[in-house]
Design goal:
By secondary structure, the protein is mostly beta strands. It contains 2 helices and 13 strands, in the order H-E-E-E-E-E-E-E-H-E-E-E-E-E-E. The chain has one domain (3-23, 57-247): YmcC-like fold (Beta Barrel), CATH 2.40.360. A 13-stranded antiparallel beta sheet has the order 6-8-9-10-11-12-13-1-2-3-4-5-7.
Length: 250
């Protein structure tokens, strides 16, 4: 497995933090998010509006001439402890028809303190999938975001390609960085800026300390409106996701 492919798998996982790419594994691969059939409740989130039927349409540009239309629908919201679990179904369509459409379902866990547990998984085009064995990716609480206090932690995972399975460790630091005006096809928003850093290690390949950075802008009542993930290998390309439209649910 070449280093470039490894980096792309890492990039895929990071972009997933912003809620913008397809995932092969579903919630059954994340032991921190067990299934729940509890009654629906409500929760306030500075990151996402939480309501069944919320629909986002994004365009993802990989910087290589390949673009994907990503349609995301919040299909289920149920009580989970003192917060709620929201299930989002995603449909990814390659605009040039070069790959088959992909449909995946992922769960987000919204805490009463404003924190969000988010899935860490990989995009189909990255040359493999990432399955988390332990650890939870966590966005800051509302108070932590406003204070610029980062959340940190580690995940262990397995990168599965067509011909091998590789151990992976991910150390993350996620920090609120104030607000900025952002213009995307859906409009202009005053959006919160979330800065994410991952440090990837793949000991089976002798890779350690591969640092990947991303920035996501999230608007009140709308959710993520733009995400940027620079090419960690210095190739000059950047994965960019922009919001085309948001339709609130009932």
């Amino acid at each position: 497995m070449k280093l470039s492919a490894v980096a792309l798998v890492g990039l895929a996982g990071l972009v997933m933090l912003a809620g913008c790419t397809a995932a092969e594994p579903d919630a059954t691969n994340n032991p921190t998010l067990p299934p729940s059939d509890a009654p629906t409740t409500s929760v306030e989130s500075i990151y996402y509006p939480v309501a069944e039927g919320n629909t986002w349409v994004y365009s993802i540009d990989y910087g290589t001439g390949s673009t994907v239309t990503d349609t995301e629908v919040m299909t289920k919201v149920v009580t989970e402890g003192d917060g709620v679990r929201a299930t989002i179904e995603r449909t990814f369509v390659w605009d040039d028809g070069s790959q088959p459409d992909v449909v995946s379902t992922v769960d987000y866990l919204f805490g009463a303190d404003g924190s969000v547990q988010v899935p860490f998984q990989s995009i189909p085009s990255a040359g493999g999938t990432v399955t988390v064995a332990s650890g939870t990716m966590l966005w800051p609480t509302t108070a932590q975001f406003e204070a610029g206090t980062p959340t940190t932690g580690s995940l262990t995972a397995t990168v599965d390609t067509s011909d091998q399975s590789i151990a992976e460790t991910i150390d993350f630091t996620i920090t609120g960085a104030g607000a900025e005006d952002v213009t995307v096809p859906a409009g202009t928003y005053s959006a919160r800026k979330l800065v994410q850093n991952l440090v990837i290690s793949l000991p089976d390949l002798g890779v350690s300390g591969l640092s990947i950075d991303a920035v996501t802008w999230l608007a009140d009542g709308v959710g993520p409106v733009r995400t940027e993930v620079p090419d960690t290998l210095g190739g000059g390309t950047t994965i960019v996701q922009v919001l085309l439209s948001f339709t609130p649910g009932s």
